Amino acid sequence: MSFVRRLYDEEQNHTEPHLLPAFNAKTAIGEQGPCELEPSSSMSPFSFTQTMEMNNVLMQNIRPSLSLFPSLDELGNRVLFDYYINQVCPRTVHTPQSQSPFASVILPYCISASPTVLRAIQALAACHWSQYDSQYGNISLQLKSQVLNDFRKRINIDPCSLVAEDPEVLVIVMFLCLFEIVDDCDKQWIVHLQGAKDIIRLRRRQQRLLTETSESMPQDPVSSFTELFFAFQDVMGRTACAKADLFGSSYWHEDDTTINLWMGCSPALVSIIFSVMDLSRSRRLMVSDEDQVTFNIRAATLSNRLQTLRQEIHTDEKEDQTIHRIAELKRLTAVVYLNCALYGGQPAEDVIKTYVRRILKEVVELLALESACHVIWPLFVAAVELDPLDTELWADPETGSVTDGRRLVLELLTRMAKNSVSSVSRTRAVIEQVWKSRDFNLSQSSKPKQSSITVLNDWERYVVPVSDALSLV
């Protein structure tokens, strides 16, 4: 239970958030939020008995009747739940028309969930909204405080709820984790990640005990998604800070090349990224000749897997081309990450410069298609490995105007901030810190690359020291 104490060892704001600031119900989200919404229409309550019916309704962009969630009557702040459905969920997939698991998986579950889950959703919605309208900042903190208090009481009264078959505890922790990422993206979200790891470990142990005398049951969709959420956050964030992983490699099967729409790539690609991260951490401990041979073989194997990886998707949707482009973009980014983390690649090298330009051009085109949620990691890697002396990425063939690398990155980050649930502000701060360090040590770029694998490489020298607790999902 030690992780629970860590999770909730923060000051609580006990102000009761009963009322939102005054707003025009028909235009509040459209005018104060990040993008326009269609005007609200009166809708009759509708009912259904199967989850798939709920999914179909949600995915047709019909604003679901809030009467499906009776707990909202006592919680109030309905507009925040509406904001979550119409503004947050569409920003978690590659196009607004795609199915977001935050809607298709989580919302059907919320129909029977406790008010704490709905309040956690409202807290996230208010936090995201506060990025565009500061009046929702206090509301978000008050709601989060209530969620933490409810959660603490639940754990104290019924510790066995941690290992219950119902995944409600994991869902609540997931939204608390997202809240911290959207808010400041400080170390608090890592505390939630650590808590989730312990909860999952306890639940799996309990499930193993139960299945010793019964048939093994398949994991429910909510548990599957929440565990994937935590594991993916863990891998992508730790590519930057190079710390030991929490969730291990069991989630990533190297032969699964099917693109996951929420991740924007295949488990096979994540498996390679995870292995690069793991090998990079052990690189400087390989001091003997035999160790170095082993390192070279493993690095070459990963490079070959990455170069030959072909990711695929099994649907007939017209938007397949977009998700294919995103998955390929992440593969190209992984090539840069591998070269820098394992082979000491530097921004001034031709191969790195070529890949960085390809990545940035693709990010520009994808953002033009409003696909912002999957490009934070590619943009980050390209930005931190951008040559400080290369101020002319490319020239417009018609106007002759030159594109400056750093200016382009900052412009892309500004555009992303309006269309994602990522911590763009923290990502920008880290990128700028890397740039300052490179500028300060500009003379180092002319030195020959170190050949020994035991010496700090470029990624470890500039990126790792400033990237602690950075979320890149």
From TrEMBL:
The keyword Nucleus applies. It holds the Pfam family Fungal_trans_2. Keywords: Nucleus. GO terms for cellular component: nucleus. The keyword Nucleus applies. GO terms for biological process: positive regulation of transcription by RNA polymerase II. GO terms for molecular function: DNA-binding transcription factor activity; transcription cis-regulatory region binding. Its main location: nucleus. It is found in: Nucleus. This is Transcription factor domain-containing protein.
